[in-house]
Amino acid sequence: MVCCVRIVSNESIFNLPGQKKKAYGGTAIFAKNFSDHVTMHGHEWIGIIDRTSKGSRTYMKEAGKDGLRSFHYLFFPYSRYRKIIRAKKLLDTKKLLSKEIRRTERFFVEARPDVVFLNGFSVSAWILLMAAKEKKIPVVIQHAGIWQVEMEIHKRVHPPMTRKIFLEMERDTARYAALHIFLNEYSQQVFERKVMTTPGGRSLIIPLPYQAEMLQQIRHQRKSGIKQEIDLGNVARWDLIKDYAAYLNVAKTAHADGLPWKFHSVMIIPDTRFKRRLKAQYRKHIQVHAPMGRKELAEFYSRMDMLVLPSKFDVSPNVVMEAALAGKPTLISPSVGWVSEYKACGMDDWIIDFKDPQKVVERIKSLSGKPQPKRFRSYILKKHAPQTVFKRYIDSFQQVHAI
Fold it and tell me: How far apart are CA 281 and CA 302, in angstroms?
């Protein structure tokens, strides 16, 4: 078993040294926090950031360095990606992206990684997977989401042939990854039902860590006092998969019933013509807040009485964990990955199908004023502690490298 590990991973441009903009999105935040832990313990982190270009060249370029953490750009022509998203027939993606795979192979020879870590999945992550396969470098993938499910929900954007191509690329993870890390039992069950069964003995369930910095901010917030009105919050991106329409329907139903409830949403609503009427209705019934930093978000949670998350599919949304640490429960749909943890902590009443907004309103009435079970917060503090989670990742990397 090796002492220190050289890790190559797909990265976010927002994690570059000197980048003023904060990382956003689950995988980018995870990469930042995990790479901090990795390098603090003497391991090396090598991030690859994909960048599409208008030209025809495929090349790599150094992007920055910070101690034991280094970053590199992988530039490849957007025209090749466009061939996939506009495909009319099945494509040989290994042939189409052969230049990118070969260039990554040469990079692996130079960087000599012990393990390739796929933090979520994408076309660029698939390139890393195929290059690692050729160079016989073990690959560990964290299934931060499931492409196939996202493609099904976004059928309007992704035509049938593109979905078939992406499905085969996602199946390659089951074929070639040395280890699969799922965030909970729910996501593993969905992956194996929708994509492909993972080989026996090659999967682990490791939950997401809470953000230590967020927990510190939460501890500085005062508890909400007695209020006549109920404040309901939602933190999500404007995406079909987050089911913003379901949240709007709950708000409209509550207001039609004359209930003194205020609905809030932290998100950016795209300024486009698409679904303009729905967007106008959303702003009418829901107070929309711009994305927030950790301090502001902690304050937001402290002001809410309850969070509402009606996602059509969500592997392990941070909002549930962050709100719980702030003492605020979240009402979730059955397709949110926290369902098994909810049931284990006696929170079955906090799971509901959002198809009938009137039933959701009645459920909120019955739950209003009831605190979340204390054991759920204790469960998160214990099972999702960053030191515990990240140690399990490093241990798994060392084990696959030693095989």
Answer: 26
